[in-house]
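User: Um, any thoughts?
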Amino acid sequence: MANQTPRFRVKKDNGGGYYWIFYGANSEEIARSSESYVRKSDCFHSIALIKRDGPGAAVYDWTVATDAQGNYPAVPASQIV
């Protein structure tokens, strides 16, 4: 039976570096680290930053026109479901 909770998995690449993959409750891969880390502690630190700062991170829509100052609009939190 598959694990039904969101989770990170820490893995090693072919070069011996550590990276993470984040899976959703449906066991589908949602994201992975953009780099490999030499130290496992750095990989864990990257996960901690996402868990700490991610929930409040702004979302900008780069698929629409910019405002007069050239900025893309922030998406209201109520639209992120």
